[in-house]
Design a protein that fits this description.
This protein is 63% helix and 4% strand. By secondary structure, it is mainly alpha-helical. A five-stranded mixed β-sheet has the order 4-3-5-7-6. Strand 3, helix 22 and strand 4 form a beta-alpha-beta unit. The termini are far apart.
Length: 569
């Protein structure tokens, strides 16, 4: 029996793989709707999509009624489409991130099977599916997962193109890559093209492989890239002359080179995020990279998938580490590349015998021990919580307990299986970390519900007339506008809407004094503010009547709105 045949025979049965994928998918998508949206990304991008849908303007993004050009609109288009088909809600707002995250896991499995082996592809998918940062990001409505998935899909297209023996397939996969780069650019800006370009340069230098530039369909690829990206950029610039300078200078050049966005961090900012984000498999990273880097030493003329994947990881990690703008989601694209490398490494470790050695058994037992140690810190959860949050933290403790139990149980089972069935041991270990992440992430609803403002919005929504002015006083609440289904007039502090209010200054109140004058003249007005602001305005004897409140915000109305409180006029 040949080596490849032995590997195939030791892989999971296709029927079992399909069953596991179905169960995983049910858990993945079934938890999208459990949590309500929280500030700021989740509420922001859901509200932009809602406003696109209700206004019918899919060219000029608006947030809370103001022009918002910080990011391109691809994800908001997809979310608005989901709202149109399925209605407006929480899981619909997360559908794009959930879908792209899940499909990327499948794509990593497919790519790994093509460039390495069927078992390596399966293991790569298992690694990514259990990486905590990938799981959490796939259930969080931000732009990072969509961007990462499109970038990784472009990476996989390159790998499939450069390793295919068929000329037609190589051309088609490279065209797919250029289209995906265009979609990534429409998702979050020029980074969608800059990252692949930097990685290709790094690969060319490290492998001294300059011929690869003749195989990437540069001319036709650029045409496809522009066909995808140019229409929106041209249309939005025609309708909004101020767009180009803000988007390309402020949102790209200044974000990377300056501290204008107050998102700075030390050079090692992403190191702990890498460790936590790939926690079950961190110990496999050094061996996986060493194995990948040595791929070309026997044949320097051959394309090296492992070296390209390593360059992908290193370039992205270093690029964002030296950037002046740092957020945790920036390094999400590295995890699928590492998953491919680690999947190939685990496949080699399994070898002919389909068993894992002592180091793997110690690793599984080590994480089971860490799970047990976690119980010692349960009393610290919510130790610094505000009095009104103590009960919420107590509820979250039960979710943490369930997550730790899943981690410990599956890790112990993996340890028991390590000698007899290494493949099953790896899958069990991964299953424990997936369940740990999904349980802990889903249970965050007990903490996030109050932050989301859903309960306040539900209590007051029916009583607020449709056509009234609604002011947001020195506050940009990222979730209440979405749950109320209405935009608000900003007062004095525009927060991240500063660019938008400067473009349409007539749509906001530049000072508190201007608001007070307008409020007295507007007997149908409503307003949202923090409790402290409400007390301060009461001391100024401003005529206000409290409608409702929660621990973080108060909704008030002009006393003369009483006759409108029963419904729209």
């Amino acid at each position: 029996m040949q080596f490849g045949q032995i590997r195939q025979s030791s892989a999971l049965h296709p029927g079992k793989i399909l069953l596991l994928v179905i169960i995983y998918g049910l858990l993945w998508f079934g938890t999208l709707n459990y949590r309500h949206l929280i500030p700021s990304d989740e509420g922001r991008y859901a509200e932009i999509a809602r406003e696109m849908l209700v206004t019918g303007d899919w060219i000029t993004p608006r947030y809370n009624g103001y022009k918002y050009f910080e990011k391109p609109p691809l994800q908001m288009w997809a979310t608005a489409a989901a709202f149109q088909v399925f209605g407006i809600g929480d899981w619909q707002a997360r559908l794009w991130t959930g879908l792209t995250g899940f499909l990327t896991i499948l794509l990593i499995g497919f790519t790994g099977a093509r460039i390495y082996s069927a078992r390596a592809g399966w293991l790569a998918a298992v690694v990514l599916a259990s990486s905590p940062m990938w799981v959490i990001s796939g259930h969080f409505n931000s732009l990072d997962m969509g961007l990462s998935s499109l970038l990784v899909a472009a990476l996989c297209s390159v790998l499939l193109a450069q390793t295919s023996p068929n000329t037609l397939h190589r051309r088609n996969w490279m065209w797919v890559c250029w289209i995906l780069m265009g979609l990534a650019t429409l998702s979050k800006g020029l980074i969608g093209a800059a990252i692949p370009a930097m990685v290709f340069i790094a690969y060319s230098v490290s492998a001294w492989d300059w011929k690869i530039w003749t195989r990437i369909r540069l001319f036709s690829g650029i045409v496809l890239f522009l066909a995808v990206t140019a229409p929106w950029f041209i249309l939005v610039a025609q309708r909004n002359p101020e767009f180009l300078e803000f988007f390309f200078i402020h949102e790209h050049l200044q974000r990377f080179t300056q501290d204008a966005h107050s998102r700075t961090g030390p050079i090692y900012y992403f190191v702990p995020l890498l460790i936590i984000g790939l926690l079950p498999w961190v110990l496999q990273i050094p061996g996986a990279i060493a194995q990948a880097w040595s791929e070309r030493k026997h044949d320097i003329t051959k394309f090296s998938s492992g070296r390209l994947l390593t360059c992908w990881f290193v370039v992205i990690f270093v690029f964002f580490s030296v950037s002046h703008s740092k957020l945790p989601g920036y390094i999400i694209p590295i995890f699928p590349a590492l998953a491919l490398l680690i999947g190939n490494r685990l496949d080699r470790l399994l070898g002919f015998t389909n068993s894992m050695g002592l180091p793997w058994k110690l690793q599984t037992l080590g994480f089971a021990t860490l799970g047990c140690i976690g119980f010692l810190f349960l009393s610290d959860i919510g130790k610094q919580a505000r009095p009104d949050e103590i009960e919420a933290y107590a509820q979250y403790t039960y979710w943490v307990i369930a997550a730790l139990i899943a981690l410990i149980s599956f890790s112990l089972f993996a340890a028991l299986q390590s000698k007899r069935n290494g493949l099953q041991s790896i899958v069990s270990f991964a299953g424990g970390f997936f369940l740990c992440a999904i349980i802990a992430g889903t249970g965050h609803e007990s903490l996030g519900r109050a932050v989301s403002g859903i309960d306040l919005a539900n209590r007051v929504k029916a009583s607020i007339p449709e056509k009234v002015n609604f002011y947001s006083v020195r506050l940009l609440d990222h979730t209440v506008p979405f749950y109320l289904g209405r935009t608000m007039i900003m007062v004095e502090s525009p927060d991240e809407l500063e660019f938008g209010v400067n473009q349409e200054s007539e749509l906001w109140m530049p000072s508190l004094d201007a608001f007070i004058i307008r409020w007295k003249e507007d007997p149908t007005a409503y307003a949202l503010m923090v409790p402290e602001e409400y007390v301060a305005l009461q001391e100024l004897n401003l005529p206000m009547q409290e409608v409702d409140r929660d621990s973080r915000r108060v909704i008030v109305r002009h006393p003369d709105t009483s006759n409108l409180a029963n419904g729209p006029q």
